[in-house]
Amino acid sequence: MTTSITRWVETDTGHRVPNHSSKCRHIHGHRYRWEAEIEGDVVEHEGVSEQGMLMDFSAVSAILNEYIHDVVDHAFLVYSDDDEMLDALKILGDEHRTVMLPFIPTAENLAKWAFECIAPHIATEYGNRVRLVAMHVRETPKSRATWRID
Question: Containing H/E element for 60?
Answer without folding.
Answer: helix 57-64
